[in-house]
Amino acid sequence: MGVPIPVASLDRMEAHVAGDAPGGPGEGPALSLRGLAKRFGAKVAVDALDLDVPRGSFYGIVGPNGAGKTTTLSMATGLLRPDAGRALVLGHDLWADPVEGKRRLGVLPDGVRLFDRLTGAELVRYAGLLRGMDRAVAEERSAELLDALGLADAARTLVVDYSAGMTKKVALACALVHAPRLLVLDEPFEAVDPISGTTIREILTGFVAGGGTVVLSSHVMELVERLCDHVAVVSAGRVLAAGTLDEVRTGSTLEQRFVDLVGGRSVVPGSLEWLHTSSASS
Amino acid sequence: MVAHLLRLKLTLLRNGLRRSPWEIVALVLAGLWGLWVVGLAGAGLVALRWAPHDVAAPTVTGLGSLLVLGWAVVPLVAFGVDETLDPARFATFSIRRRPLMTGLLLAGVVGVPGVVTLVLALLTVVTWSHSLPAALLAVPCALLATLTAVAASRATTTAAAALLRTRRARDVAVLVVGVALIGLGPALNVAGMRWEEIVAALRAAAEVVGWTPLGFAWAAPADAAAGAWGSALLRTALAALTLGLVLAGWAAALTRSEARPAVSAQRSGTHDTSGLGRVLERLPATPATAVAGRCLAYWRRDPRYAMAGLSVLVAPAVLVALAVGNGGAAGPFLLWAGPSVAFLLGWSLHNDLAFDHSAFWTHLAAGVRGRDDRLGRVLAAAPWQTAFVLLMTVGGVAVSGRWDLLPAVLGISAAVYCAGLGVSSLASALVPYPVPPPGGNPFSTPRGAGTATVLAQLATSTAVGLLALPSLVPGVLAVTGAPWLGWIALAAALVLGPVWIVLGVRFGGRLVDRRGPELLATASRS
């Protein structure tokens, strides 16, 4: 793509992060959701959802619009209080003991604002400082991340003036700046052009290769199929199928399995005749 | 098509009411307000029937023109225009321009302001009813005036929106209008004028305004009532022409905005840290100083904050106006410049968290302690606000020449400012209410948030007053007669002020820790 991605610099960041303390939560899943539930008024958005994301996996969550993906990920990252259930980040209960979990967690939510009156460099640096990082380290990592994401030229432009793809990338930089062990990304490829998409993909692949875990939601099946090694199909607030990519798609394509599981309907032959110009009468 | 659009508007209104009980409360309050206005102004219009013509004519023409001007200008600055039916949403339906605009225009009358305007305009029929032909002419003129007013609001907002597509232009425009509004502060002097002076001023103004597009429709029946049928018919024709021109202007603005749909904002150059920001850099790197640095950048770059900062100039402006209006007896009024600025500044942070909008998730995801969040916001505001309060306080005392009252006034300022910071730190975590989003019009109120806004503002300002009482009571007594009591006011402020800030930061911080996700949900709403 012509965009050199110094993935090595991200690997180096990994060295900064404190591993799980000895005697702490051991080799369990990176993210474990137990009986998560949320209702909005009469509508049940998430219905006692269980999910385990193994360490080091690249996990895709797919589901139709309104399946509860965003609600689930918000509850898994401490942004939305669940009505019931637990979310364990590397063994730390995020709702009982938020500090430990949040330290190891990087988040990219969908459909929320950023502090967009800051410049890109200021924003990434701010995300680092909020996590108690040293000023010099925050500065250095901010510059490295913006460089890796191809935003170096826009580092001193206000984020409000960024395009959609640039905004996603700077938000990703914010999620990465404290070298988390687990990344939870809600629709990271939404409204992102192919060039930026490639950059984001290479960063994420490098992150997983370096021992990190990525959970992302998407409704683009091809993308999940190409990128992820694990996948969960979510619909109506429940997990319909989960496991490795091959376990879930069982020889078929992910898209076909998805339609089978969710119960999509195809157009009945013979209907919508009038859409064909040959039969147009008026 | 016109009937479809009217029905759509009513359906949308009904669904809005069904969605939330607060919308019903808001509509009931707006309705009561409308009834009150109609009752008051309507009674005046009916009473004018028995007034001499040279009182009735300028009153109706002057106030009517003001009403049309209000429709055209106010939505640009405050409240915004009711966009229940946004023309852009009809862009993909192939509706011909003329029925679409007719429908949108009539639908614009549906609503409290539209109905109030229509009823008041029609009541001028009663005003001119001592002459039957004049009363008959008043009916079409009332309709012309109402439709022109509604069309003008659409035309100006559509045109402004088309002009202000870029963020920088929008920010500048908002500031210019805001400063102009603040400049109107001295115009409050009208309140001190006697009735005869007002009528005289109106008469002079109406003479001119009656021959402008704002006043044609109001002045025509007045002419007819006086028997001047030549100018009456001329003005009626001009009123009809005005409506046509306004509609044409609206159509042109619509075409323009359709041709250039939401282009992305232009690059706005690079941004550097301010002087105060560099001072913050010297403090240890903690989440609290990080929050302070970010808030400081927002005070400079976000027009919503800039407006809050500038609005503190209103209080001194009004005080100066009062002093001037009082014939140079400036002293007693200017003493209060410091305390009033102290109140506005300390209190201005009372909804700071909601200003973050959904960006507050950054704090939540990073696990920032509530105490650091609270402290950072205070740290960003306190240095420059304290300097400003001191300047206004000492300046006010100096101009009034009452140096013996310095401790009293300083005590009141300090007490009110510190109580304001304390209450704000707690309140923005306790009762945040929706505000316009960043980049939104800082003068508008999100739909359905009006009631919550008023309640929260009343409660927080009352709390500030109560906490400042230990300094307010001796301070006011000092000003009214026993200057030595001022030292008690100052001492109480110096002791209690820091206590209020510490308590506010601590308990506000605990609330943020406990209710973070709920606060995020409230802040994101609007």
From TrEMBL, chain A:
Record PROSITE patterns: ABC_TRANSPORTER_2
Primary location group: membrane
Cell location: Cell membrane
Transit peptide recorded as keyword: no
Domain of life assignment: Bacteria
Example GO biological process: response to antibiotic
UniProt keywords, alphabetically: Antibiotic resistance, ATP-binding, Nucleotide-binding, Transport
One annotated Gene Ontology cellular component of this protein: plasma membrane
Domain ABC transporter per the UniProt entry, residue ranges: 31-261
InterPro entries referenced in this protein's UniProt entry, alphabetically: AAA+_ATPase (IPR003593), ABC_transporter-like_ATP-bd (IPR003439), ABC_transporter_ATP-binding (IPR050763), P-loop_NTPase (IPR027417)
GO molecular function: ATP binding; ATP hydrolysis activity
Keyword Zinc: no
Protein known as: ABC-2 type transport system ATP-binding protein
Protein's organism: Kineococcus xinjiangensis
From TrEMBL, chain B:
Domain of life according to the entry: Bacteria
Spans traversing the lipid bilayer: 21-48, 60-81, 102-126, 132-152, 172-192, 232-254, 305-324, 378-399, 405-431, 484-505
UniProt keyword annotations, A-Z: Membrane, Transmembrane, Transmembrane helix
Keyword Calcium found: no
Protein name from the UniProt record: ABC-2 type transport system permease protein
Natural source organism: Kineococcus xinjiangensis
